[in-house]
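[Meeting: bench + compute handoff]

Bench side (C.D.) handed over the final construct sequence. Compute side (W.E.) agreed to return the predicted structure before the next meeting so the bench team could plan truncations. Sequence as handed over:
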Amino acid sequence: MAKLDLETPLAGLIFRFFLASSAAYFFYLVFFHYSSLIWAVNPILPLEKYTPWMRSWVFERDGVEPYVLYAMMYCVIGAALLADYAVSKAAAPGIKKILFPLAGLLSLHFYFIRVFHAPANAFRFSAWGALLVILAAGFSLILASFGETKKWLLPVFFAVLFAFCMIPSDVIAIGDYGYIITPALRILHGFKLSETYFQYDYLLSLLAALWIKLNLSAYAFYLTGSLSSFALCAGIYCLAARFFLHRRFAFYLLAAFAVVHLFGNIRGGVVNFQVTPLRLDWWLPVLAAAYWKGPRHWLTGLLLGFLLLFHHAFGLIYALAYVALTAVLAAFEFTDGGNISVPRLRLYAVNLSMIAAAFLSYKLFLAPAGGAAMGAYAKYGIGFLPIARNSVYWPMPAVFAMVFMLLRKNKKLLSERYFQTAVFMTLLAIGNSLYFFGRSHENNIVNIAASLLFVLFTFFDLADFELNIIPASRINRLLVPALATGFLLAVTCTYSPRAVGKIRQQYLACKNLWFILDPKVPVGEIRALTASSSRVIFLSLGDFPYYYEGGYVPQGYYSFTGSWLFAEDYTDFLNRRLAKGYYLVSPISEFADFKEIVSKLRYKSTRETRNFIALTNNPAVYRRSAHIIPDCAIDSEDREGGWRGDFDGKFGANSRSYSRQILQRNIPPAAVESRYSIAQFGIMTEGVK
């Protein structure tokens, strides 16, 4: 036992892991001791204050939990580093012998008594699932063993991966896409960015506006998300293969992430566009720039500045990670006896200046006109769950701490590029975790899995390096690869049933050419109902197809309809529009959901057709058909727009240049409703249980 501490590589590694896990367990207990105070910060309003569609979410409140958990990750790392330093420098051998089993018992209690559950767990035994596990494990082991010598293996893997990424396994969620497409339509109509509510920041809607401007179908916009999924997989492998000290861990990382990303999500990969890599994984290009060019290079600062301007929430998170990186690197240099001189700090001045300039430019020129609305969801805790006690995220602080502890111990043996990249990756992963901290829905761990898995396999890479610095025993050479293999098998087993179901759906999609949703909006019926007026607002939580197909201008700061948080604000907005001669049109199937809102509206008459009902103060003019809609109107309360013209000419029959390449399934007009469920359209449900 005399060499149980840091002198024996395996014992030292295990001891450090116990210290990191004990630190994580301590803060875990502290967090839940004060959790009632942490979760009780949100103001509580009467239920009737909220719009009807928001009320089911107002009971999910987590207070200041995101900020507490974010700070807690740094506290765990700091505590683990201090404990490691104290044990290695100050503790006598007898103290170490006591600390080792004590920390071990705490760690075992943390991991095995708490019993953390896999996020969105789908495991149940099936023959097809078992076969999939065997195939995935076998192919991954072959790839890890022969991927560098058999050059054809990797292209085959990526070809299969591309097919899985691009073939949809589910129909898009119209409501979620409404947060992106409806603001994009307002952009095309000439509104400033600050004049529209962007639930997911500007970048996605700007891309959607460009997509539509190129005469591509808005319903095919999911393809950009599919491409981003494949790009993320390819990018992770390309970076990891060059970054990792042992390239075989890049193959394990790629295989594990592919399984989690493609099959771990409860719904299809691009059903909800907000969880695609195009929104959640901009950390990868930032990290790649820092790896290839260095964290001091202007390209890193330029990327962070771009994200601060157009993808502000995540840009701010990554900018904070960059600032933390400069502080951490300075702290490591100081503890190693170096001097934190002004000339060395100036090396980061250009990038820090670019970040500050981008932040100020956003606040001055691009910040939303209704800035308070951006934080309303967080302020009132709408849809924010408290984190679960058995969340699988809880072991991650120990992994973060282990990366820092191994980096500190082996700093002189590692290249500066590796050291800086590993630190930055860990800080970016902590920042990216705010997407999970903010909602605490377990499925969101799957959605941010790329950054978390990259850190986990960085830990595996460092642990393998630690065990094999000197000629090592066979167990030291095989231990970490065995752990990586076991992890891959575990995630494949966990999500194999869901994988079987999604592969079956993808097969049906290919067989029946069900690739792009085409809701067949009966625009003529809407025009006849509204006397061909361009002043139309839709009461629907799936409103973007109506605005898109009919060429109507989405009205009001909160677009789409589901963005409205408070019932009184929404009612006042609609009454002002009714007074200006607008028609309020609702699908009959959804009209009941708006009855409370409608009861507070001031209108004179209603008109009804087979699929729609309209409220208006206009004279009773009803035309059986209308072929041309007047130029799109923008209300005087909105800015006068510069994008005009006959919508049908630009985006009507010729709008689906991509769709024409793919045979679409015909959907009857009667099926056009705002909820767009899979069963409603009969898409990819036959034979799927």
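W.E. noted at the follow-up: The chain has a mean pLDDT of 83. C.D. will use this when planning the next construct.
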